[in-house]
Design a protein that fits this description.
There is one protein chain. The relative contact order is 0.18. The chain folds into 2 domains: 111 residues, Chitinase A, domain 3, CATH 3.10.50; 65 residues, Orthogonal Bundle (Recoverin, domain 1), CATH 1.10.238. The longest helix is centred in the C-terminal third of the chain and has 15 residues. The protein starts with 5 loop residues before the first helix and ends in an 8-residue tail after the last helix. Helix 5 packs across helix 6. Strands 1, 2, 3, 4, 5 and 6 form a 6-stranded antiparallel β-sheet that branches. A two-stranded antiparallel ribbon has the order 7-8. The protein is built from 7 helices and 8 strands; from the N terminus they run H-H-E-E-E-E-H-E-E-H-E-H-H-E-H. With 220 residues, the chain is of the alpha+beta class. Helix content is 26%, strand content 20%.
């Protein structure tokens, strides 16, 4: 089940990693993402929301000269990208641009530098400073994200609203058994240690709902 794939629990799959910090400034406040819907399927559901796991293809262009700096179809053997919406796995402008979008929908979005790579640009991605970006996006799937309330409750067997090492260890065993891949026994311990290192921010040996970053806080 792709929606609960173990890797997504652990590793953000960034198309272009989000910049470390957004560019501030008063001019930025007036700038926003422009969205043009190129194709809207009927019926159009489910609509994407924060925390959903999306599968999409997109091409990125520089607004200044129309040159293409990114194409998901030429990477990763042409597979569409999976990422969690609204959590900073992609640049801020894409997190905004892909809200309320349904499978089959196509959009052309224009993202100002303040919601992309700002004054620094992104040399590795061939994006100059202060670049306005245009993305053409085709969305294929909208799934419940790996960090959803459902996933949390599934791991939290004793319902104490926090995940213990034993609970996550059990969950890893089930996930490993499900995907049937051969792994070295030490992989389990390494992944478990990594999960706690990355998620147990207060170091109390448990991952709380807040640390797990569940999106619908009111449901817990």
């Amino acid at each position: 089940d792709m929606g609960r794939a173990l890797g997504l629990l652990l590793l953000p799959l960034a198309l272009l990693a989000a910049p470390a910090r957004a560019e501030g400034g008063t001019a930025a406040a007036a700038e926003e993402v422009q969205i043009e819907v190129l194709h809207l399927p009927e019926p159009c559901s489910p609509k994407s929301k924060k925390g959903d796991l999306l599968n999409a293809h997109y091409d990125g262009f520089l607004a200044s000269d129309g040159s293409k700096f990114y194409c998901s179809r030429t990477q990763n053997e042409g597979h569409p990208k999976w990422f969690v919406l609204g959590v900073g796995q992609v640049i801020k402008g894409l997190d905004i641009a892909m809200m309320n979008m349904c499978p089959g929908e196509k959009r052309k979005v224009t993202i100002p530098p303040s919601l992309a790579y700002g004054q620094q640009g992104y040399a590795q991605g061939k994006i100059p400073p202060n670049a306005t970006l245009i993305f053409e996006i085709e969305l294929y799937a909208v799934n419940k994200g790996p960090r959803s309330v459902e996933a949390f409750n599934q791991i939290d067997k004793d319902r104490d609203k926090k995940l213990s090492e034993l609970e996550i260890s059990q969950y890893l065993k089930e996930e490993f058994a499900r995907d049937g891949k051969k792994r070295h026994p030490s992989a389990h311990d390494e992944i478990l240690a990594d999960i706690f290192k990355k998620n147990d921010h207060d170091g109390d040996g448990f991952i709380s709902a807040k640390e797990y970053n569940v999106y619908q806080h009111d449901e817990l």
